[in-house]
Amino acid sequence: xxxxxxxxxxxxxxxxxxxxxxxxxxxxxxxxxxxxxxxxxxxxxxxxxxxxxxxxxxxxxxxxxxxxxxx
Length: 71
Description:
Layout: H1 4-8, E1 14-18, E2 24-29, E3 35-38, H2 45-58
Antiparallel strand pairs: 1-2, 2-3
């Protein structure tokens, strides 16, 4: 079983998609393709790339706070 920190440390575990409004977001996927985390919506590809670069490079040392999705 992979932990969040292990999954977030690998670029290949992220799926980047466009929303219906044309913005961009990403999901962190487990090896079984289940969604582990979902990002906020970004307005540009550059912002998504910067966010992913930051997450991937800092994942192993990050503190984790669980938040429930808004119903």
